[in-house]
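re: ur question from the group chat, yeah i did fold both. here u go
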Amino acid sequence: MSFLSRLFSRAESVPLPSLEELLQERGIPRDLPGLDDLVPDFEHQQAEERVQWVDALAALREAGQPLPPMWPDVQEILVPELVPSWQGERDGFYYKPFVDGLCQQVLVGTQRMPGAWLTLWGVTAEDVLERALDQLRDRSRKTPFQRLPSGIYQSAYGDGLDASRLLLPELWLDLFPGQNTFVAVPNPDRLLVAPQVLLPKLLEALDGALADSDHRLFATIFQVLGDDILPANLQEPHPIAQPQRELRQSDLLHAYRAQESALDPSQGAIAPVGMMRTQQGRAISYTIWSEGGPVQLPETDMIVFCNTKGRPLGMYIRKTLPRIHELKGVPVEVWGPMRLRYEGFPTAEQLSRLECVANADQVLEILNTAPGQKRPQAQAVPPAVSQAASPVPPHLRGLNLGMQSRDD
């Protein structure tokens, strides 16, 4: 009997936590604007779901973000938005990675959607993204792409969401049937499409778009490979290989510069970033590591080391820095591309282990040469190890730093 009694007995019901109890535990006032409209959804939740629901309220309040409108009221005004990945990490709204360097967020009218809204609505991110994409697709049906005199195509939607149509390949993938398709989204209101034979024209249009607008989205050129959209992998001697490398580096440097405002100066000096171009047309990024305390160092092609008086000690290839095993970098906790925090400063002996591309006097001339003036010639130092074993990327081997232009 005792066995049957245990088998058929029902567990005692546990009282559900009330909204007032959960709000009080988290210090949330009951009179939050818009809360009463959401309460009926809370009343249908089980205990664990109720806790998650109120935790979502607390997350919104902590982030200074508003409560959501009612789910039935927003389904017709959802649209996706593409932003750089570093911005998605920074801003604190819902985001989902899309392609290398870009992620998608959701606009509810003009408001970016916080992730906590999903919990309060009781819907999944997949449902919201699907509805947002459907709305954008409906908006796009009657507007064709515009053919430019160069032969490439440009979006002409005029709603500020042109770049978001990268999420809808069916709108532009057949513009050049049977040819390799390349796309670019330099600004939120521009989507450029070109076949491989017109890549130089695409580059011209991309440069023009970046120069004409203060609202930069992404500079890197993408290529369609099957069902994937990937950064175009153009190899030497392709004429767009070097420009594509420079575009990718400019996106990285743009992210690093945006990141600087979020760094804590008490954790170390914020090493700046810059970009220069060699006589061979190779774009290389650099940073400056000054002696005198901890430094928060970005990952660039080159490092210029300076002493306490600000005089350069030389320019060295960043990939060879692990040869100074005494210096260990610790990742900085910040959104965007990685920075490493270093304490200490390399000695002369330690610097001699690195691969040097310009000595102190050459670096001083390079960094002080005004744009438009003749650049000094910098002799490359022979690699300390064979190229087969060298950690130096192929495009930096045998480097000569005679400069033609610089962007810092």
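okk and heres the other one u asked abt
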Amino acid sequence: MHKRIAVAAAAVLVACGGGSSWVDPTSGSFSTQDSAEVMVMVSGAFGAAVQRQPGPQLRNALTEPVNASVLCEASGNVTVNGSMDASCNAAGSSCSFNGGLALQLNSCTSTTGYVGDGGLNIGASGSVDSVANTFSLHETIQGGITVTHNGTLVGTCGINVTVDLSSNGTTDTVHVSGTVCRQPIAQ
């Protein structure tokens, strides 16, 4: 379950979007391309970090620590720390989960020359049922990342995204809203 949550979160992060009491730290001049490159860098780093985490052995109640550090695409690294709490039925086939993660980019460099430094807070909650083959995830992503491109400072990119993902085993539904570098996410 843990890997499915993390991989789903990373997949929708590339398409990102909003929250309520957000003070956007964005400064500088970000083009649409810059914003897209930032999200590709962040989602790739997050996906790589959570893939390194071992999947939990689900029991009735479980707090699963998350602590991973991996290299970024070209250079630098990303760390993900926090915990996810799960509560499952006796059979372990139906679980609900919630938790918080802190993602920290440390000179995380993409192959296209973008470098990110800074942190994002990620809150997630949802449920999974292996018998009914259903899955739901609600996620909020907020923070600011200092971005350079080919050695030139672009600015600080504020990321404020809300993601809702659900699956009934046949149909997957994703709703994303918010802003990346003050640019609204088109869905």
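fwiw on the second one: Residues 2-184 form one domain. DSSP finds two helices and nine strands in the chain. idk if thats what u expected
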